[in-house]
Amino acid sequence: MITITGAAGFIGSALAARLNEEGFKDLVLVDDFQSRPDKARNHETRTCAERVDRAEFPAWLEANANQVQFVFHLGARTDTTEQDRALFDRLNLHYSQAIWRLCVQHGLPLVYASSAATYGAGEHGYSDAHKGVDLLRPLNPYGDSKQDFDKWALAEAEAHRAPYFWAGLKFFNVYGPGEYHKGRMASVVMHAFRQIGETGGMKLFRSHRDDYADGEQLRDFVYVRDVVDVCHWLMHHRKDSGLYNLGSGQARSFLDLTRATFRALDVPENIGFIDTPEDIRDTYQYFTEADLSKLRGIGYDRPMTSLEEGVTEYVKEFLLQDRTL
Fold it and tell me: Does a structural domain hold residue 80?
């Protein structure tokens, strides 16, 4: 069996779809299924051995560990505007620690979701080298929770209390099919698609820094298919444990992303700007770019999908057809 937490979410559901395509039918899908019926499209057609409620998963894993071959822990609270630190500690830190310890106890390999939010404003760069982790200063409680778990995992590994193989993946700005339920946290492609359909135009956040023009804020946008490819490859690789960046490796502007969306829709560009909301203005990242040298160095050599190719596929094959994976 292969277990996937967050299986009704964006990345988890895409991974489940890929594993089904590869012939893996004995999946155990883990999520808060009852309270989030809005995410049903992401898992209702998946072939699986069992669906397990998130709260019950640690006990389930304890009882069924001898049947499990691999654990993907992708479920998390991901709202970067949420300020309840206790909530993040419970769902992103303590819950993840429980899963880690079970993987250690039962000899199970583990891939878990970290985040590029751990890099904060990027003042210390975007290298996933372990030696610099303590210097990172996230900008919000979500990033703090991911940073806290990364630091804890590294300390456990140093003390020889780690799964025989583990990888923490620092996801950058992931976009693609399956994010329809994410609301404010959905990608700019999703927001642009909806706004263009409703108004004929798209409003981007205005820059509040002199060194960036409006819309020229830069992020590392990575297509969800590439994220799943890396997860799938690591499941078979099972060596070289550690933290790994997972992005495209190339920063692109929000204007680039939005213009690609207009082109995919074959609609004339109509882009305006609004002030960045005050609740996120002081913690807004103006630049992110994944350093992929570490991932490339362990043998992952597949090219990442270009921004234009990914946006075009997402818009034409999924959003316009109102379908997910």
Answer: yes
Residue positions counted in the chain:
325
Could you report the per-residue pLDDT of 15-60, keeping only the tens digit for each?
999 999 999 999 999 999 988 888 999 999 999 999 999 999 999 9
Residues noted as catalytic: 142, 182
Q: How many angstroms separate the CA atoms of 67 and 186, rounded?
A: 35
Summarize pLDDT for 286-296 with one digit per residue, the tens: 999 999 999 99
- Give the pair of three-digit tokens for residue 126: 């975007």
Give the residue from 172, 158, 154, 159 showing the smallest Cα distance to 113. Answer: 172
pTM higher than the cut 0.70: yes
Q: What is the pLDDT of residue 89?
A: 86
What are the residues whose beta carbons fall under 8 Å from the beta carbon of 135, sequence distance 6 or more? 124
**CATH classification of the domain holding 108:** 3.40.50.720
Q: Based on the structure, what is the number of domains in the chain?
A: 1
Looking at the domain assignment, is residue 160 inside a domain?
Answer: yes
